[in-house]
Amino acid sequence: MRSLCVEPFQNLSVVDTGARRAFTHCSPWKTNHKHEAVLSFPLSSPNRKSLSICLSSSANLPVMMEEKKQTFDASEAAFLVKELNENFRAGKTKSYEWRVSQLKGIEKMVVEREKDICEALYKDLSKPEYEAFVSEISMVRSSCEEALKELKQWMKPEKAKTSMATYPSSAEIVSEPLGAVLVISTWNYPFSLSVKPVVGAITAGNAVVLKPSEIAPATSALLSKLFEEYLDRSAVRVVEGGVLETTALLDQKWDKIFYTGLVNRMSISPILCLKCLHFSYSFILVFRNTMYLDGKKRSSTSVITTDEISACVFGTKNFILYHLFSTNLCIAYLSPQLVIQISMVRSSCEEALKELKQWMKPEKAKTSMATYPSSAEIVSEPLGAVLVISTWNYPFSLSVKPVVGAITAGNAVVLKPSEIAPATSALLSKLFEEYLDRSAVRVVEGGVLETTALLDQKWDKIFYTGSPRVGRIVMTAAAKHLTPVVLELGGKCPAVIDSDVDLQVTVRRIIAGKWQLNNGQACISVDYIITTKEFAPKLIDALRKGIEEFFGTDPMESKDISCIVSSNHFSRLESLMDDYKVFYKIVVGGQRNQKKLKIAPTIFLDVPGDSQLMQEEIFGPLLPIITVENVKDSIDLINSKPKPLTAYLFTNNEKLKNNFVQSVSSGGMVINDTVLHVTVSSLPFGGVGESGMGSYHGKFSFDAFSHKKAVLYRSFSGDTSVRYPPYTPEKQKLVRAVMNGGIFDIILAFMGWSRD
């Protein structure tokens, strides 16, 4: 305790004004056993301290001031996450050099502090030194070694095939860090199961917080000390504690959560899942029995129904188009919607039928000296019974494509189409009954009550397409059963337009990516444009001419523009237009007809950032244009908002292209065009952060509905006493040599020597 003398309370005026304000706003006085007044209040700094002031009833006695350490609470957690996010956004963790430095730091930590690690593991679990090395220390070290060896390769963009639909084009899959991630580890392997996920998070370029298990306090305290000493504190932290601290951490918004524990430890697991309302990824590692439908594994015969889906699509095109056009969205008949709604489903079936045998083959995996002689493979197995909840804006393709993926992976599936597109919902129910195997593929029609009844059940996976608001409900329901989810949501998709572009081509592609997509009612449609103040007038004039060219002088009479889906959605868009902050900012369009549920293409210029138009996903024909001094400033503007489903950039500047790809985090990205990435099945389609989690299309659909089962094969030969007790010094030398992987080390160990 630190004590200091101050004036008696009646002379508090001599104390600084900051302290006097603190006294004034504190909680009421309490009396201790000495009949002295005691007042405690927290400090605003992140040092997790409080001041306790003890005032004697006697004016002659000094005031005692004591520092008391408090529990890590929600405010501390919020401060921590904010600090990590700021450092992540500054780009500190993204570089190859930073990742390597941290991996080498962990490797150095493991080598230099091996004795301390073994002692902590012995205190917590009475774990023998031999076992501590084999099951904990060597595992972490080998993870670091592999990451350091392969990191450059892992960071390289992966080339993807394109199709005639996007010619001429090229495509790639870029791995980008998520942001600030949380790792909650367990007690049974408290070192390796804490550090290995951290290695993964660092390797991917994230800032990371580790919450070790309080049931292994010695290892937890050691990890906190070692991370402070060996790693970059601005991006890698340890938070110790129990349920209160874990709850405080889970109350924050994370970009991913990695949890290791048992499924029956319900004191933690539900907290983890239910707190994923911020769309944090919950990667739950649990002991799980393989589950099959009807007590048996589904064979490849269950995917034969894909042929029937193809028949459904190929044989009823006109009937489907009639329903889409006449009843739901007034979709322009035989318009590009034909390509989106019909051809994309057809191409999904064709690709699945062509590639299915290859997708189902086990994938060979490398083994190490530690398992010699052995072989390993990764087997894709179906999950079980899955639920697909689809949306209304593309009510056919966004219903059938996930079902194709679920069937291709060998699952039983229930589809719940959107009640907002009732004609398509009824048609899907009829067609599935007619063309597919009813014992494994069903459609359930209805609204909120029916969806709620379905979500109350235990599914092996839930695939949801729709709004973030309902996505939260779906994820909360899934958390009750620890059901994994794929959420295909939305967000405000920006389009950045540089001044060096081909203006005519750019405008045509912007119009195609906005008003030709259900009149803006698409999750990937352009939500707002960012351009320079100087270039904005030229762009607006070109957009005005382009709209007139495509939709005529009166767009309200055009048959090439879809109507708004419902009166509720129309009213919502009207309220966005009539907001006093933006209605006078309209520079193009603004016409509307409530009876016909039509709104003309409408462009706004420089609406306030705090207006509803810029705060929520528009999902309609309204298009704000935001101006900046320099096009480079657009990157900071985009990154200040939740991560979008797609980001678009139009430029001929190679440096800007590279900076945009590396700096802007989004589910997908298109350079010099809009929306066409959804037609490339070799690219994953999905969101990140609040725009969704998980991805599908092509092989990624198969993977989304499959479990990747790790299988190691060994014979009865090659057994050795080295792995079994009693653990002698000779055995330990040999095990270290094998784990280190060096032939020379192994020879030395057999001879009774070592490098040491």
State Rg.
30 Å
Low-pLDDT stretches = 1-68, 264-317
Total helices: the number is 25
Structural class: alpha/beta
Task: Give the percentage of residues in beta strands.
Answer: 15-25%
Per DSSP E runs of 2 or more residues, the count of β-strands stands at 29
Widest sheet: strand order?
A: 21-24-25-20-19-26-27
The proportion of residues forming helix, as a percent range, comes to 25-40%
C-alpha termini separation: 46 Å
Largest sheet: 7 strands, mixed
- Whole-number mean pLDDT: 83
Shape: globular
Quickly list its features.
single chain; 756 residues; disordered N terminus
Please describe what this structure looks like.
With 756 residues, this protein is α/β, with parallel strands linked by helices. Helices cover 40% and strands 17% of the residues. It is built from 25 helices and 29 strands. The strands form 7 sheets. A 7-stranded mixed β-sheet has the order 21-24-25-20-19-26-27, with helices on both faces. Strands 16-15-14-17-18-28 form a 6-stranded mixed β-sheet, sandwiched between helices. Strands 9-8-7-10-11 form a 5-stranded parallel β-sheet. Residues 1-68 and 264-317 have low confidence and may be disordered. It is globular.
